[in-house]
Every structure is written in C-alpha cells, then in structure tokens.
Design goal:
Elements: E1 4-8, H1 12-25, E2 30-35, H2 38-48, E3 52-56, H3 64-73, E4 77-82, H4 85-94, E5 98-101, H5 106-119, H6 128-146, E6 150-155, E7 158-163, E8 167-173, E9 176-181, E10 185-188, H7 192-196, E11 204-208, E12 211-214, E13 218-223, E14 229-233, E15 239-242
Parallel strand pairs: 1-2, 1-3, 3-4, 4-5
Antiparallel strand pairs: 6-7, 8-9, 8-12, 9-10, 11-12, 13-14, 14-15
C-alpha cells in the first residue's frame, strides 16, 4: 500500500510547490490533503490519518506545533517546513522529526524523502513530545518579540495610532484593510497576510480569508438560512462571515 501524506502551508505558492515536488520525486506518495491553515489541517489529520505530515510551523488558526502534537498521537511522522533555521536545527539534532527549510529545494527534499522512507519502517519516535515543547517555547518567544503593539491607519484625512488592544477586527477590502475598534473604523495598506504573522494567534483568530478577529469579542456563531456561518461580536453591530475552513474552531462553542 502506498504511503499517505498531508501538507499544511498557508502560503498557496509554497504549498503548491511542495506538492509538485513531492509528486515528482516521490510519485508513490499519496497526498490525501493540502491545507491552508492549522484548523483545516487538524480536521484533515483526524479524517484522513496520513502517515506523514508536512507542517509549516507558523500558520493561522493553529500553529504547526499544535497540529504536530495531534499527529504524533496518531503515530504520524513529522516533517516541519520552516523559514526559521533555529527550529530546523533543533528538530534535526534530536532526530525526533525531519525538516525542510524554505524555499524547499529538490536536493534537500530528496534527502528528507530518503529519511522519511526509512522512518516509515519504524514506529514514530517517542521523544517527539520533548521536541515540540522546546519548539513551542521558541515560537512563543519569537512572537513576543515581533507581536504588534500599535497599528497605524488612516481615519479620513488623519493618520491615527491604534493600540492593538483596542482593535476588534481587521478586514481586507480591495487594496485596503479595515481596522475596526469600538469607536473608529480606519484603513491601512498592510496586507492581511503580513498582519497575521505579527499578531498573537491566541488573541486574534482568522475566521475568513479576509478577516482576523479578536477572539474575546466573539459572542456567538450562527448559521443563516443559506447555511452560511456568521460571527456576532459583543457590543458591535457588524456580523462577520466565517468560512468553511475555519468553522471547526467553533464546534465546541
């Protein structure tokens, strides 16, 4: 039986490139899911039970580290895909997981494929938990250094500084991103995908391709007559759409 794998990478170009390289260099590998965020990866992991998971460490929704914890419990073999060399070195030195540095090259991928093929003949490493704890500490330290404290946005003819604690949600619209607080609505040019990497994923959740919302202000999520989900915020009149790939976040609410 051919081995199965899942890819979780929030950048479409990098996700498609890795899938193409795997099909080219490991043709017998069956890609059962290609996910754009941690939540959909977790859902696909539980449904498809892949033997190998290729995980970006930093993803919206849930980090790759959290998905890896679930994958390890299911006995999957982990390959981290990361732009951060310190994470890769830690993973490689313990031998508990393999890694690919971005951008992924065919030469490096071939080395990884050889190692993963060998590992598929053996049980998943029992010491993966210790590695994931170390990676989680490193990721949180990096986030604390890079997390936004203020955002600058235009309010009419005025440029205003918004404390990040005042922001309810960000919403991409055309070439701009709306910055919505309890009192103001302003616009900024920073792309939403760049904002995601600078926001604390425990505080701000992506609920739609175009929306990042402060989790603590979500009052409820409800389905309309057409089967579409919307998030209602406390003390705010707007109802925000929740796309299918992010709905699993609210299954327990």
């Amino acid at each position: 039986m051919n081995p199965t794998a899942l890819i979780a990478e929030d950048e479409p170009a990098q996700r498609e490139s890795l899938a193409r390289l795997l099909r080219e260099h490991w043709p017998e590998l069956q890609l059962v899911a290609e996910c754009e965020d941690g939540l959909s990866a977790l859902e696909a992991l539980q449904e498809k039970l892949p033997q190998v998971v290729f995980l970006d460490i930093r993803m919206p929704g849930l980090s790759g580290i959290k998905v890896a914890r679930a994958a390890a419990q299911l006995g999957a073999h982990i390959v981290f895909v990361t732009a951060y060399d310190e994470y890769a070195v830690a993973a490689f030195e313990t031998g508990a997981a393999d890694y690919l540095l971005k951008p992924v090259t065919p030469e490096r991928l071939l080395q990884t494929i050889a190692r993963v093929r060998q590992r598929l003949t053996q049980p998943a490493r029992a010491d993966l938990h210790q590695l994931l704890e170390a990676l989680d500490v490193g990721l949180r330290a990096r986030q604390s250094q890079t997390s936004l404290k203020w955002v600058t946005a235009s309010l009419g003819d005025t440029v205003k500084m918004f404390p990040i604690d005042d922001v309810l949600f960000f919403q991409a619209q055309d070439k701009y991103v709306r910055v919505v607080s309890a009192k103001d609505v302003a616009v900024m040019r920073t792309p939403l995908k760049d904002l995601i990497s600078q926001l604390d994923p425990e505080t701000f959740w992506q609920i739609h391709r175009s929306i990042i919302v402060r989790a603590s202000v979500i009052e409820r999520v409800q389905k309309d007559a057409l089967g579409h989900f919307h998030a209602k915020l406390r003390g705010h009149s707007e109802s925000l759409p929740v796309s299918a790939s992010f709905q699993s976040r609210f299954k327990s609410m």
